[in-house]
Amino acid sequence: MTEEPARWTQATVYADMWVDPDNDPRESDGVSPDGELATLQDYLANYRLTLLMKCEGMDAEQMARRSVPPSTMSLLGLLRHLVEVERDWHNWIGDDDPLPKLYGKRDADFDGAVAEQAEVDAAYANLAREQAATDAALARHPDLGERVGKDGIAIRELMVHRIEEYARHCGHADLLRECIDGRVGQ
């Protein structure tokens, strides 16, 4: 016997979906956004929301539960990691001295993901704050071809990289969530 949870979904229309299309906050009945920048922002917003949906309803122990040894990956670790990533992206935009890592040394975002509600709450608050800071800095650069920061990174490249990072970690979150309670990804 194993402690493996049975697979399940909240969707009733399609058994392999996270939620029914009518209940999915990422879906819209309208047409897609006009323009490249608006499209990139829409994809990013949807992946950010997807990550939050994967964490929804989890207690501190579940959020900090590690995947498989020797990995330190957990849902809470992913949130904390994306805090650091957003901070790094914000650093790439400007020419100022970079903001220091919030959680410390390399991999501290995952290593320090402990099963305490205060840590979970702080991770959500930190992520929202860092996302808003990066979004505000990028809003000053609407030209996707503009190169910014000391490395001269193009805004387009930064936006695509952000989408890639969230999409990749949403895949990790699918597997982590399924290991925790059996809920399947979409």
The total strand number stands at 2
CATH architecture: Up-down Bundle
State the strand order across the main sheet.
Answer: 1-2
In round numbers, the mean pLDDT is 87
At the fourth level of CATH, the homologous superfamily is: dinb family like domain
Please provide a written account of the structure.
This protein has 186 residues and is an all-alpha fold. The protein has a single domain (42-181), classed as Four Helix Bundle (Hemerythrin (Met), subunit A) (Up-down Bundle), CATH 1.20.120.450. The chain is 53% helix and 2% strand. A two-stranded antiparallel sheet has the order 1-2. α3 runs parallel beside α5 (117-139) and α3 runs antiparallel to α6. The two termini are 28 Å apart. The relative contact order is 0.19. The model has no long low-confidence stretch (mean pLDDT 87).
Sum up the structure in keywords:
186 residues, mainly alpha, Four Helix Bundle (Hemerythrin (Met), subunit A), two-stranded antiparallel ribbon, 2% strand, flat
In short:
The chain has helices spanning 36-55, 60-64, 75-93, 108-111, 117-139, 155-181; strands at 147-148, 153-154. It has 186 residues and is an all-alpha fold.
